[in-house]
Amino acid sequence: MNSRRNFLQKMAGSALALPVLSSITTKAHAAKPETPYQGPVLRVAILGLGSYGERVADAMKDCQRAKLVGVISGTPAKIKTWQSKYGIPEKNCYNYETLDQIKNNPDIDAVYVITPNGLHKDFSVRVAKAGKHVICEKPMANDAKEAQQMVDACKAAKVKLLIGYRMHFEPITLDIVHKRKAGDFGKVLFFQGLSGFIIGDPTQWRLNKKLAGGGAMMDIGIYSINGSRYMIGEDPIWVTAQEVKTNPEKFKEGVDETITFQLGFPGGAVASCLSTYSLNNLDRFFLDGDKGYAEMGPSTGYGPIKGRTNKGEVTYPHVTHQTVQMDEMSDIILKGKQPEIPVDGEEGLKDMKIVDAIFQAVKTGGKVMIKY
Amino acid sequence: MNSRRNFLQKMAGSALALPVLSSITTKAHAAKPETPYQGPVLRVAILGLGSYGERVADAMKDCQRAKLVGVISGTPAKIKTWQSKYGIPEKNCYNYETLDQIKNNPDIDAVYVITPNGLHKDFSVRVAKAGKHVICEKPMANDAKEAQQMVDACKAAKVKLLIGYRMHFEPITLDIVHKRKAGDFGKVLFFQGLSGFIIGDPTQWRLNKKLAGGGAMMDIGIYSINGSRYMIGEDPIWVTAQEVKTNPEKFKEGVDETITFQLGFPGGAVASCLSTYSLNNLDRFFLDGDKGYAEMGPSTGYGPIKGRTNKGEVTYPHVTHQTVQMDEMSDIILKGKQPEIPVDGEEGLKDMKIVDAIFQAVKTGGKVMIKY
């Protein structure tokens, strides 16, 4: 059973009970323009044809400014299936041996790397060297060192590097970030992120240190790390962390089951977060300032996201996160658009530095300062 | 402005948005017996006639098994006011010089000490030595050493020592504790307690280290500490803690403004808590197990308390906490009743050991083991 997919998809169990009355409904953005889109389209190949790759491919069917045109996989049967399902021409299909030849293909602009974390760095560097823009799923690498190599490789190859931070384009999230910027919550002093689900099959790559780079932290805790940054609007300068392992059989050396961690921010705010593979449907954000608060739950699942502030509910029609993400990434790559919350390699690198600091803090037991 | 009283009284701002539909309403306990109570009544004198003492006195008007019969105060004018307001006879009035003569008064069974924390120990020891049962407001002392002295003094004097843990008798709290004991939430692995309010007048005793024993932790953080214990049903064995101070002018040396702390429990559960004097209306509990969860907000204010589990809302008619507490404490003292969640000196001493460990962890930056 793919418990992770089920979790991110459903998560209804822990949904915030939003007030039925006295809600503030904000008018939704127009879903589609009236005239068909005429501008440039980002032509994307997906590398790694697992379940999340499939979710992205399905979501891209509704994209206007991005299009799935190619696939890269080590499994010939998967390539065949995808070709027929998504209409991929033979000339845009690659395996891991032929990948580097993609540089000669003028019909592919970017490659979206959706493999296990431990393979992100090598594939991203190869894609960059082949002259294609890189979109890489998060966490971008196993650690900050690898992440830095990816940033450097993309810079050297003069291609863009974007990380799959779908929440950075999610309308309820953005609305709450706007409210925080407008001072609606006053001086923000506390963020709480609870991220977790009960992971199933013990043989999956997510429980393999080499492929996953860790355990729950790399997979689901990263949402609370990244969320603390965009919700507070600063980057943390210190971290403390505590690990608890109730099942060392399932969660082997280097694979974290449960970690509580705290992040200190320059403005005096503190974040208190939980990352766990042993509690289900845990997906809650809470941002508190001296004048108001915001809370979200589900806060980072595939949606619908639910949010409210001290003034009432924040509602937008649900949009498929990956559809919006890929349309927006098209604008970032092809038109130089600056997203409101960054999604570039440097943004991903910051998260990896925080993850490294968390693992170090677990080991040392003390406060670890973070340098960017 | 008494921001604390306002906070504990209102706290509606951060109330959980409870589901209006699909709620599970549990039948309330019968509010009053049909025949008048005929049993023994605990005759109580209140020592320290501040705003909380007044709240207790008002609540006791509705008690059946306890009665306010005396006062002890250093301010003659206050004694006069209370005498007329609560019908206290002259022979049951004491000041801090005459307090010890209370031993010759056969009409007083117990003294409820409701002074600043720093005075609890000395007054409690004096009351014990005068042969009266001691009820002491929480936190029971400035530190565990003082708390131990109180326990010892009451033992030596063969009087009971109870701490004012009003939440231990609150019906929604007890219902959720029952559900946890019955296994409704499965294996409990996480508790989160957020406790805070913005404190007003900087000259009040609560911001005086000697009188308060600390800052927010002693005043409001104690709710999350104690709550973690009755919600999880175990006593923590380690603690880590991080302090943040944004206003050192208001919060002087030894007076904590904001502390995040984590408690590790023998069964593998972890608690992640916030104690702060810089965020308003913060009063939330969240208990999570591998089969379900409970949340409360307000969770420890004067009520109405709101609670729900993954199965729906938990509702009981609001009861005045201090009325129930004093009736129950009467049964504990006069009839030897065992409360479901202890309220004795040993219970208070545990909290003080945890507070001491938190302050130590803030200083050392590392994990501090707790011994009981």
Automatic annotation (TrEMBL), chains A, B:
Pfam families: GFO_IDH_MocA, GFO_IDH_MocA_C3. Residues 42-165 form the Gfo/Idh/MocA-like oxidoreductase N-terminal domain. Residues 181-294 form the GFO/IDH/MocA-like oxidoreductase domain. Belongs to the Gfo/Idh/MocA family. Residues 1-30 form the signal peptide. InterPro entries: Gfo/Idh/MocA-like_OxRdtase_N, Gfo/Idh/MocA_domain, GFO_IDH_MocA-like_dom, Glc-Fru_OxRdtase_bac, NAD(P)-bd_dom_sf, TAT_signal. The keyword Oxidoreductase applies. The keyword Oxidoreductase applies. One of its GO terms (molecular function) is oxidoreductase activity. This is Gfo/Idh/MocA family oxidoreductase. It comes from Chryseolinea soli. It comes from the Bacteria. Keywords: Oxidoreductase, Signal.
